[in-house]
Design brief:
Length: about 220
């Protein structure tokens, strides 16, 4: 379920947007000023931000600038009451992925959100650097960090992680992992998968005995959350 952060000081608008987004199975969180919105974006890790330009404490331009510096891949749609070209261009130059001018229809906004998610999904297919929680994985350079410190992973562990990330949120069986990671010409048993996953958990999980990232689905395989 995708999580959307609304940063908007008009409470009635937030209420209306929240109702319509939740009706489409989005999880919604909100903030009524720029500073709180920025902090929530960092802490809550939303999948997309709806960001008003004119906000108390910290305006939308500054929030966008900071977020794109901290989380470059975070999609942002700017909400603005201004239709002037200069205002729109400024937002896009700061890294906003799209904009919509008030007043707007809910269906139009939903279409914009879906379009941004499609673009993000397409870009992620070739993405080499992934960040989740306190981990950063660079598959191109085979370099990993945990809490900002280098993390030593074996090539097979990188392959396992890539497979899990590509199927994030889906259950993947041990047989599928054997096929994708070891190949059809190799025939290790499924215990081999469990051993490798166990070793990987000890490196990336904060508590390997109670994993939060790679969860066992008993009798089937695993799911990467």
């Amino acid at each position: 379920m995708k999580k959307i952060l609304i940063v908007e000081d008009e409470k009635d608008m937030v209420t209306g947007l929240t109702f319509n987004l939740e009706a489409r199975d989005y999880t919604v969180i909100s903030a009524y000023d720029g500073e709180t919105g920025y902090q929530k974006a960092i802490k809550e890790e939303p999948d997309l931000v709806l960001l008003d330009l004119m906000l108390p404490k910290l305006n939308g331009y500054e929030v966008c600038k900071r977020l794109k510096k901290e989380i470059p891949e975070l999609p942002i749609i700017m909400l603005t009451a201004k239709s002037q070209e200069a205002e729109i261009v400024t937002g896009l130059e700061l890294g906003a992925d799209d904009y919509i001018t008030k007043p707007f229809g809910v269906l139009e906004l939903l279409a914009r959100i879906k379009a941004v998610f499609r673009r993000v999904s397409s870009n992620q297919e070739s993405k080499e650097v992934h960040r989740f929680g306190n981990l950063e994985i660079n598959f191109k350079k085979y370099h990993a960090k945990k809490n900002g410190k280098p993390l030593k992973l074996l090539p097979r562990e990188y392959e396992l992680l890539r497979c899990f990330i590509e199927m994030e949120g889906e259950i993947i069986s041990r047989d599928e992992l054997l096929t994708q990671i070891w190949g059809y010409d190799s025939f290790p048993n499924t215990r081999t998968v469990d051993v490798h996953v166990g070793k990987l958990r000890h490196k990336i999980e904060d508590d390997p005995t109670s994993p939060k990232l790679i969860v066992t689905i008993h009798g089937i395989g695993y799911k990467f959350l």
